[in-house]
Amino acid sequence: MPSPGPQAFAAKTQVCACFALACVFAGAGGCLGQVLLTGPGGAPNLLGTDLAVFEARETRKDLPCTVVAQKPVLGFDLRFHSGYDISVPLKELAGIQNQLIVVFRVADGSKPDFPVYFVQRINVPTIEEDARGEALLQGSFDLGEGRYQVDWLMRDRSDRVCSSSWESEAVLSPKDKGVAVTLEKGEIAPTDREQFEPEPFLRRSDNSSGLTMKVLVNFAPQNAQSATLQQSDTDALVSVLRCMQRDPRIGRFSVVAFNVQEQKVLYRQEGLSEIDFPAIGEALRNLHLGRVDISRLGQKNSNSDFLGDLLVNEIGAPEKPDAYVIAGPKTLMEESISSEKLKASPGTDLPVFYLNYNLSPQTTPWRDALSGAIKFFKGQEFTISKPRDLWFAITELVGKVVKSKADRRETASAAVGKGS
Question: Is 90 in the same domain as 32?
Answer without folding.
Answer: yes
